[in-house]
Amino acid sequence: MASTSDIRKGLCIRYNNDIYKIIEFLHVKPGKGPAFVRTKLKSVTNGKVLENTFSAGHKIEDVRVETRSYQFLYADGLTYHFMNTDDYNQIALQESSLDTPELLKEGEIVTILFNTEDSMPLSVEMPASVILEVTETEPGVKGNTATNATKPATVETGARVNVPLFINEGDKIKIDTEKGNYMERAK
After folding, report:
1. Pick from 27, 44, 62: which residue ends a domain?
2. Which of 12, 29, 69, 135 is deepest in the core (most CB within 10 A)?
3. Per-residue confidence band for 60, with pLDDT thresholds at 50, 70 and 90
4. How many folded domains does the chain comprise?
5. Could you read off the pLDDT of 3-14 as tens digits, one per residue?
C-alpha cells in the first residue's frame, strides 16, 4: 500500500475496481484546512480520463509494473502492432492505451508497461520527443509579424502541428510527445 506522498506521474494504481495511470498531479496545501492531492487519472482498460482529489495521507493501492522496449510495426485501424526488441514476440494493443498515437512512426521504439501479476499490457509510453518530416505546409510570408508567428503543418504521420514561419516542406522537426508542440528543427 502506498500513500498520497508516493503519487508521481506514470504511477499505476487500482481505483474503483479498475487500473488507472496518473497523468497529472498537484499537491495542494491551502492556508486553511488539510492538504490534498488533485490528480488526473487515465483508465488503462478503456482510456477514459477522470479527475479525482485524494486527501493527504490517503492510502492508495499501487500496481507493480514492469517495463519492456517494443518497436512499433504498423497500425491496423484502431489496433497497433508492436514487436519486442529482445525476443521478437508481437503484441497488438488498442488505440486507447496510447497517449499520442498520431505522433507514432513505424520503427519507433516505445516502452510498454506490463502488470507483473498477470503480464497484461497496461499502457504505452512514448519517447520524450520524436523527429518527423513536414509533408505539407504553406510558405511563410515575411513581414506583418510581431513575434512568435506560427502556421499549421502536417507531418508524415498525419498529425497537425503549429510551426514557425521558417519551416518548409521536407524539413525534419522535433516534436514534444507530451503536449504535441513544435520544439526545434532537427538536423
Report:
1. 62
2. 12
3. confident
4. 3
5. 888 888 888 888
